[in-house]
Amino acid sequence: MAAWTLDQEIDANYDFFRRHLNEIFAREAGRIAVLRDCAFFGFFDSVTEADAKARVSFPDGIYSLQPVVQEPVDLGFYSHAGG
């Protein structure tokens, strides 16, 4: 994917997440998804763990985190993690 700004990445990842939520919910409910380039990078048991792994894997800070819940929520700072 082309180099996007963090805001563009977050918006695109959120749209991707909402479209694929039903596919992942049964096996990943309650976990934290790390997304990059409109794809799932991984699922983790805590925001702290997800953010730490994403920061190492994506030093440019272009990624987003989303809790796997039926109604997507804004994680505040962590919704806009990176950078």
Please write out the topology.
Blueprint: H1 6-28, E1 32-36, E2 39-44, H2 47-57, E3 64-67
Antiparallel strand pairs: 1-2, 1-3
Main attributes of the structure:
three-stranded antiparallel β-sheet, 83 residues, alpha+beta, globular
Low-confidence stretches: none
- What does the average pLDDT come to? 86
Number of helices: 2
Name the helix and strand elements from N-terminus to C-terminus, one letter apiece: HEEHE
Q: Write down the Rg.
A: 11 Å
Q: What proportion of the residues form beta strands (DSSP E)?
A: 15-25%
DSSP strand count: 3
**Morphology:** globular
Task: Give a written overview of the molecule.
With 83 residues, this protein is of the alpha+beta class. It is built from two helices and three strands, in the order αββαβ. Strands 2-1-3 form a three-stranded antiparallel sheet. The protein starts with 5 loop residues before the first helix and ends in a 16-residue tail after the last strand. The model has no long low-confidence stretch (mean pLDDT 86).
Summarize the structure.
With 83 residues, the chain is α+β, with helices and mostly antiparallel strands.
